[in-house]
Design brief:
This is 3-isopropylmalate dehydratase large subunit. Catalyzes the isomerization between 2-isopropylmalate and 3-isopropylmalate, via the formation of 2-isopropylmaleate. By secondary structure, the chain is of the alpha/beta class. The protein has helices at residues 6-15, 39-50, 75-91, 103-109, 141-150, 175-186, 201-204, 208-216, 232-242, 302-305, 308-318, 336-345, 347-354, 404-413, 431-436, and strands at residues 24-28, 31-35, 62-65, 94-96, 118-121, 135-138, 152-156, 159-166, 194-199, 225-228, 262-267, 274-276, 284-286, 297-301, 328-332, 357-358, 379-382, 398-401. Strands 4-3-2-5-6 form a five-stranded parallel β-sheet, with helices on both faces. A five-stranded parallel β-sheet has the order 16-15-14-17-18. A four-stranded parallel β-sheet has the order 10-9-8-11, with helices on both faces.
Length: 437
């Protein structure tokens, strides 16, 4: 019999039985997460399941974040925030406040998830945790409420599509360009209920903040999960973040003879910076095809590209410069930690001197809630993960997706610009250690 994929191995371990893709299992959950939009509905299911004996399956592994309407943009949002606060206080769950950051950034930064964990979140971008070797997946609020009560959920073991990139990435090409290319090649539904596994020497060379980008956007091609095999770099990163040693189970990796549904291979040298045109991430093209498109707003942030390294890359481009006169820039860091790093290192000042507006950490503009929504006819170039019609505001606005490097270059010219026209940097995992020092 052929070997197994990571997803088959992990769900076998969590279910306590030997299973393959296509099987249905009841698996033990390691970590459960909800935020200020999905939490209140999840709590209703939790109480329906538990009745009078309302006890969390694992308070120390239950995380609640106030990040989507943060700060509250209305009374309904404020009431949802209070619902999370009350639930956390009553049941002992971990609860992160306004400004602490986006759920997917916080769970990784604070060490709640690790390699080999099964993580369920009431948010579609819970696939992010695969960037450090976990099986992360988004579930509905009702499913999350059930998991909070029982610590288990039913899963269909997913098939796996492998994306393999070998060689050295060219200048101007980052993880965001890779994943946009993958989504463009297989389509928005090309990986539906499958695991997107990213591999090859180019992927192995990526720092953790870029691996998280790949896993995060697995959902944009329908993926149930995204996965990058954890390695020494993963362990070192997590130890720096948390101060705790991290053990990686070498058996929880895809076997060399595992069966894949599809395998897509790429030569890194052949790849170019990508931009996804409105109004679907699958509309990915080489940046040269849309270069010169005039833009009104630039958005830097989200759970995809709102980490310190992403924002510093933009700041490096803008240092000593000003935004093109016809554009505005909204910057929203992914976490309070990133915000503080920006203040400490001068990145905050560089961006504001250039004309950018910096908001507190959260999700606001990405889903068109607040902090910089788009009006009729507005054209935005964003480091976000989705560009559906109306995603960031008006149904008549137009959102293009790109890497921080492309957004930074475009800020200088007021139009979509190939980042290869300027010098851009590539950061490894030691930059945050340098900031802390």
């Amino acid at each position: 019999m052929t070997g197994k994929t990571f997803s088959e191995k992990l769900l076998s371990a969590k279910a306590g039985e030997d299973v393959r893709a296509g099987a249905y299992v009841e698996a033990a959950v390691d970590v459960a997460m909800a935020h200020d939009i999905t939490g209140p509905l999840a709590f209703e299911t939790f109480y329906e399941v538990t009745g009078e004996d309302a006890t969390l399956f694992a308070p120390d592994r239950t995380v609640l974040t106030i990040d989507h309407h943060a700060p509250a943009d209305g009374v309904e949002a404020a009431n949802n925030h209070n619902a999370l606060r009350r639930f956390a206080a009553e049941h002992g769950a971990h609860q992160f406040e306004v400004g602490d950051g986006i759920c997917h950034a916080v769970l990784v930064e604070e060490g709640f998830v690790g390699p080999g964990d099964l993580v369920v979140g009431a948010d579609s971008h819970s696939t992010t945790y695969g960037g450090i070797g976990a099986f992360g997946t988004g579930v509905g609020s009702s499913d999350l409420g059930t998991a909070l009560a029982t610590g288990e959920l039913w899963f269909r073991v997913p098939e796996t599509i492998r994306f393999e990139v070998n060689g050295d990435l060219p200048d101007g090409v980052y993880a965001k360009d890779l994943v946009l290319k993958f989504i463009g090649d297989v389509g928005f539904a090309g990986c539906t209920y499958e695991t997107a596994e990213y591999a090859g020497s180019a992927i192995e060379s990526l720092p953790i903040h870029e691996r998280l980008v790949l896993a995060n956007m697995a959902i944009e091609m329908g993926g149930k999960a995204g996965y990058v095999e954890p390695d020494d770099r993963t362990a070192e990163y997590l130890e720096r973040q948390t101060g705790r040693a991290v053990d990686i189970d070498p058996s929880l990796r895809s076997d060399d003879d595992a069966t894949y549904d599809e395998v897509h291979t790429y030569r890194a040298a052949d790849l170019a910076p990508q931009v996804s045109k409105p109004s679907n991430p699958e509309n990915a093209v080489d940046v040269t095809e849309v270069e010169g498109t005039e833009i009104d707003q630039l958005f830097v942030g989200t759970c995809t590209n709102g980490r310190y390294e992403d924002i510093k890359l933009v700041a490096d481009v803008l240092e000593g410069e000003e935004l093109a006169p016809n554009v505005r820039m909204v910057v929203v860091p992914a976490s309070g930690s990133v915000y503080r790093h920006m203040l400490k290192t001068g990145v905050f000042e560089t961006l504001t001197d250039a004309g950018a507006v910096i908001q507190s950490a959260g999700c606001g503009p990405c889903a068109g809630y607040h902090q910089g929504v788009l009006g009729d006819g507005d054209v935005c170039l964003a480091t976000a993960n989705r560009n559906f019609a109306g995603r960031e505001g008006s149904m008549d606005s137009h959102v293009y997706l790109a890497s921080p490097a492309t957004v930074g270059a475009s800020a200088l010219y007021g139009e979509i610009t190939d980042p290869r026209r300027i010098e851009t940097k590539r950061y490894d995992d030691t930059i945050l250690a340098e900031v802390e020092a």
